[in-house]
Amino acid sequence: MCELDLMSKYKNNAEFSIGVKMVLALAFVKINDLDTAIEALTEHIPPEVLPLLDWFEEFYVGRTIRNRRRPARFPPVLWNVHERVLNKEDRTNNHAEAANRRLNLQMGVQHPTLWTFITNLRKVQSGRDTFYQHLEAGNSPPKKKKKFIDVDKRIFKIVEDYNNRNMLSFLRGIAQNISCY
Fold first, then answer.
1. What digits encode the pLDDT tens for the residues 110-148?
2. Among 4, 96, 99, 170, whose CB has the most other CB atoms within 10 angstroms?
């Protein structure tokens, strides 16, 4: 979005924002239906979003050449969450993201020296060890926030109803439940 210089439009135009999020919603489409979904999106999203869709197709689905899909750099089996949603499994790697964010906050600098990195890594690890000991002692992990539980329920309901919706309605429904930036 930044490379395409579309962040301002994304933040200020709700319909444009939904078009962008519909590209992201492809992660919730059945893998066998990705071609249909991309075709439907191509005709529906604003023209400025087409480069984003092309990029997504190139790296995450595989470009179509002479009626055959080239292998994607990141194949759909790695990132597609359709079945994960139906099985009520985590869709993201938020735990890894949180650990990375925690480490970056502890560092306080962009490019720490090796010794600063090691010292801070030890501090973060010590905190994680303490957290783990609390869990071992029978304490419950922090509860998921209500707003995230509600979003999960809405997304589950939409994915569960997948076969009863047309593709654009499905993508739009998911897009309205995705938050970015």
1. 788 899 889 988 988 898 899 999 999 999 988 888 998
2. 170
Please give the torsion angle defined by the CA atoms of residues 59, 62, 63 and 64, in that order, rounded to the nearest 10 degrees.
-170
At 152 the three-state DSSP class reads helix
The pTM of the full predicted model, rounded to 2 decimals, is 0.77
Q: CA-CA distance, 1 to 9, in Å (whole number)?
A: 10
Task: Say whether 126 sits in a helix, a strand or coil.
Answer: helix
Residues recorded for the chain: 181
Q: What are phi and psi of 11, to 5 degrees?
A: -75, -25
- How far apart, in whole angstroms, are the C-alpha atoms of residue 153 and residue 18? 20
Structure tokens at 116: 């600063």
